[in-house]
Amino acid sequence: MTARVLVVDDVEPNVRLLEAKLQHEYYTVITAFSGEQAIVKAATENPDVILLDVMMPGLDGFETCKRLKADPKTSHIPIIMVTALDQKEDRILGLKVGADDFLSKPIDDVLLLARVRSLSRFKTLSDELRTREAVGRRFGVIENLHYLEDGLSARILILEDDNRRGERIKRVLASEQRPLLMSEANELGPEGHASVELMIVSTSGTSFDGLRLAAHIRSQTATRNLPILAIVDNHERDKALRALELGVNDFIDRPLDEEELLARVKTLVRRRRYIEALRESVDQTMEKAVTDQLTGLHNRRYMESQLKALLERMQRGGQPVSVLIADIDHFKRVNDLFGHDAGDDVIRQFSERLASNFRPRDLACRFGGEEFVVIMPDTLPEDAMQIAERLRHSIAAAPFYIGRNREQLEVTCSVGVSVGNQVSDIPETVLKRADQALYSAKQCGRNRVMAQAA
Amino acid sequence: MTARVLVVDDVEPNVRLLEAKLQHEYYTVITAFSGEQAIVKAATENPDVILLDVMMPGLDGFETCKRLKADPKTSHIPIIMVTALDQKEDRILGLKVGADDFLSKPIDDVLLLARVRSLSRFKTLSDELRTREAVGRRFGVIENLHYLEDGLSARILILEDDNRRGERIKRVLASEQRPLLMSEANELGPEGHASVELMIVSTSGTSFDGLRLAAHIRSQTATRNLPILAIVDNHERDKALRALELGVNDFIDRPLDEEELLARVKTLVRRRRYIEALRESVDQTMEKAVTDQLTGLHNRRYMESQLKALLERMQRGGQPVSVLIADIDHFKRVNDLFGHDAGDDVIRQFSERLASNFRPRDLACRFGGEEFVVIMPDTLPEDAMQIAERLRHSIAAAPFYIGRNREQLEVTCSVGVSVGNQVSDIPETVLKRADQALYSAKQCGRNRVMAQAA
């Protein structure tokens, strides 16, 4: 895949050289000649990757990186720092201020392209999630989810079959993370592999093929999104490139530099947590869209959409759908006598009894106020009546508790039942019939179940 | 990136050969020896790509493909049909029953891998969106979004600088699609390029470099998600491979086969629309999570989360946040005298006036029932009072209309205003002060604005 790359260097020939290399590989290149310019262009152009020179007058690369990573508008854009050869301190410092990777001059073209490709993959995914997530925020009032978290205390699994080497990696990581060796996988706890946030895979193992293992982790549904750091022997550059191609997120050369290991791990964990936070934010918003806030039951909108689908299925030859509407008797009195908080207590406890009285395939919803609707797919009216009667009984059989002092209160409900079994049925007609039955139940003295008129 | 590939062929040596080739490239391989088995494994294993042999006893490849594409559980999995060499009819038929691509035996390994890579990219994206989208459905009652739409009548832009060739492509496509040549881009209408669903790029143009153009389309934010079909001269296999690598979704050889062109275009349009439908479904659900159903204003949950964020910003040194609560006077009478539908009419018209009286940065929300809240960031209490007074006036100044006969009704509202400017302020405290001010306004005779007690 191609991508848009922002090249930042104060020395124009350096910029032009990188630009030419990248354009030759069909990348789109944006250029900046200072840290200040880079910050502006990153925010306006939203590049997929930034190649950032360390040595610049004014804002140097480190400071530029720090600012880019501190701004929610740009913090998610991967940054590759470009350092002079063998400036180990620079590289470590770069990773520490939030850079995602570094390359040494003179730049190894193949490695450059492999890194850019790997990082822009991350960017594509985070852009997709960011776009969806932004819809749930709509306005710019609340800030974006923030990228810069600490990247510490992650559960990490080390896949290395040389015990001495594995132990060393674990010892180094233990200062900041929660590493485990393969042989200790039983210590993962009840969540098992779901608690792991990063896999470290050695490609020089003798009992397994590291690349194959990495590919396997990447292709399984359960571990597909897990970041992988490969450890590759210094002279095996092709293996490192291959690893990136297979979807390994980063690699580190052996002999291991301890600081570099810690820094790369932290970056990977940070990136992982950012993507997961985006996913979670989207999922939570999606959940909210179908949930009643007070009770946790489904909301009216969701109920109506599901009822519509079930009626359409019935009309295509499926089973009838039964529906009940339950209304708490004399609920207004509860509010008037004990206040709204007591009313909310009753609504909540009613919901709990309601939810526990139905089958997993039934859909329990709050219709609004003190009215509840349950949709029962593939259910005949006579069965629906029994279920409704069971609900009525469970409400009337034991008192409710309200307020801090848990005062007891007798509560009853009236229930109307209808069935969607007609070609012309839409949610409105079925709900209307249930509502009429409910009205009859109220007229007949409440605390009872009535079916729709035949 | 690696992937999980389901290989289907009744001839075991064929399966083993493909398995070996794919495993050598670190793909995970699942195997099936009949169409029936393939259908089961596709549903249970959710592979990223299916390689499906055409010639099988029992269910042949076409029938298997048709069934896989008809089942919402598997319809999104890309299928590559494997046909005998030069069976042109087979290839066209394969595309017509919904296959995403085909390969001829003996299989060209490099092409195989390029196709698998390209299609599994699509699968990864659709899996991500499907997972998010599923959260908004929660239960399996409503079926998944369906993949199989017709793939017709799409706006297609043909980037080909040889006029004769361009015209021919256009003529062929015009029977099923809405193609335009580059030179006709001004006919795109008001939506402009946003209405385009597919780009066809010739790689043998003389006035532009087709690969570079494709890469550019792929890397720009506005066109990043647009499918691209490359037209490649028959003997330029490397160009075709390169195109797939750059993110082109499919290619077709020149000399063009008209039926193949139509079939490939249809498949690409279908895939595009599926992904867009997933995006839209997620976005709509996200929208619903923050919206009041009756009025389209923000809902209470969203209002509270935004107010919380704004108060925190104020406490970190930001500006004060003003809040107003507006309550429709004697609303219960409207419901009692004219019915709930009339009540809803009033609520809706009230919302419209409310929304039109505020600045873009203000957040107008329905708090519940006949109560509304407006959050005004960076607004001093005296300005908030003015705004509230303007709202009160706009409600009282002109009558509301209810029912089918558009009967006129005088409506007024009372408004309480508060400001969040204290270190200890949380949404509850600020809303409570506004509510107390509202109470005073009601006590003093309604149709007036009151500020919180100093």
List descriptors.
Rossmann fold; five-stranded parallel beta sheet; elongated; Alpha-Beta Plaits; alpha/beta; homodimer; 454 residues; 3 domains; 14 helices
What kind of sheet is the major sheet of chain A? 5 strands, parallel
**What fraction of residues of chain A sit in β-strands?**
15-25%
When the domains of chain A are counted, the total is 3
Count of helical regions of chain A: 14
Shape of chain A: elongated
Number of strands of chain A: 17
Question: Any overview of this molecule?
Answer:
The structure is a homodimer of 454-residue chains. The first copy, chain A, is an alpha/beta fold. Chain A has 14 helices and 17 strands. In chain A, helix 4 (88-96) links the parallel strand 4 (79-83) and strand 5 (101-104). In chain A, helix 7 (210-219) runs parallel beside helix 8. Chains A and B meet through helix 5, helix 7, helix 9 and helix 10 of A and helix 5, helix 7, helix 9 and helix 10 of B.
